[in-house]
Fold this sequence. Notes:
Blueprint: H1 2-22, E1 24-29, E2 56-64, E3 67-74, E4 91-98, E5 117-118, E6 126-130, H2 135-145, E7 153-154, E8 159-162, E9 165-171, E10 184-191, E11 229-230, H3 240-248, E12 252-253, E13 259-261, E14 264-265
Parallel strand pairs: 5-14, 6-7
Antiparallel strand pairs: 1-2, 2-3, 3-9, 4-6, 4-10, 8-9, 10-11, 12-13
Bound molecules: calcium ion (CA) (3 copies).
One calcium ion is lined by residues 30-32, 34-35, 55-57, 229.
Amino acid sequence: MKNSFRFSVLLLATAVLAGTALSQEVSFKDPTGDDKGPGAYIYPTDKVYAAGSFDLTEMKMKVSGDKADFSVTIGTKLEDPWGMGGGFATQMVFIFIDTDNKDGSGFTKSLPGLNVAFSPADAWDKVVILSPQPQNRVKSEVETKAGWAKDAVVIPARTRGNGRTISGSVALKDLGAGDPAKWGYQVVMQSNEGFPDKADLLTRKVNEFEGQHRFGGGNDGDCDPHAVDILAGKGTGDKSEIEAQYKMLAFECNADGTSKKMATLSMIRK
Ligand SMILES: [Ca+2]
Ligand SMILES: [Ca+2]
Ligand SMILES: [Ca+2]
């Protein structure tokens, strides 16, 4: 009797310890008003692209047990004007993660349609895609257009928009081993394009001039980052992160629209 009592106390203590170790949150904030890519991007003209729709304000990853719950908050209330069924429609979010912190380990190129690179020190190992498209559609786009990355792409079974927040859960093991608090993160805010260019992964283009469904302020070629908002600096939401973002997304094009200097992203770390 005495022994079995001691055993259950031990068991309880272990469960409490494991509980604290396995429940943790990583979060970053982003300033408002910087949903302009490298500084001059303009939203498409159709009214579905409401002001603030691509203004990242926060990214949270909450680990509980074997799950990682991601939530990304933007500058306005989410709407579903295209009837996607998940409470949002125009946004698409890429959360790149450097899980091993090893210089040169991972990918320095990003996914097709984003037109950004990562520095070798911040090469990414996994990317979580939050899209209003069904998981199978995103998966098949990845297989067709980015087969090289298919084992690194993690897509929640269901991604929902509610209020100003887009959220989705994935299995922690799909992100890798190690301590999520020590990983590097970068968030790229894009727009869900149901009829993408043949090489683009459901992403909306940025052109020189904005159109009904095209961002403006960039280049008609693929030398401009197709990224409307990203994390920068220490990811605290400080106003200085606006300039840091514009600097990180700076790009140069050749006359024919090919890249002279590609925007190169770094990871944000706690
Ligand atoms: Ca922002
Ligand atoms: Ca472009
Ligand atoms: Ca930003």
